[in-house]
Amino acid sequence: MTLLLHTLWLAGPVILTGFVHLLVLQHDWLPALRRAPLDFGASWRGRRIFGANKTWRGAVIMIAGTAAFAAAFAQVNAHWLHWPVAVQFAQAHPAAWGALLGCGYIVGELPNSFAKRQLGIAPGAMGSGLPGKIFWVVDQLDSLAGMLLFVAPVWLPPPALIALLVVVMLIAHPISAWVMVQAGLKDRVG
Question: Cα-Cα-Cα-Cα dihedral of 150, 139, 110, 164, to 10°?
Fold first, then answer.
């Protein structure tokens, strides 16, 4: 039960915010932020640093959304569920917990995006051969690594939870990519 509760406090706000992000993309809400890349259009060695797909809109949605959903989780739990909270910082400071998750999610994706842009791999593409397989795995797990790094100052997860989260991410990411393809927001799953 403890692993399930840990997973809920870590993955729940992020997954729900991912659905909100899908709606934002589908309806093109916050278009000014869509046109504002995180790398400000800068290049290194003649190639974009992160690319046009890493925008302030995604960062704002992920950080604000995970903060809001973590706070909502805490309220629902405190008033109705009364489950033992596995992460004490999440109970004491749920919005801050969510913001850490959202920041980690965004920052975790950036090194992989940088590497792919420098290798000339298009946004959303994986490349071919062994590098393509490596990029696929990294794409599934980079945001999790970022989240774990950002929450490390306030909480260190047990190894069994990290293993469970790796499995969850290897399943959840491809499913969310498939949903995005079905919604017309992406042209391929991987």
Answer: 0
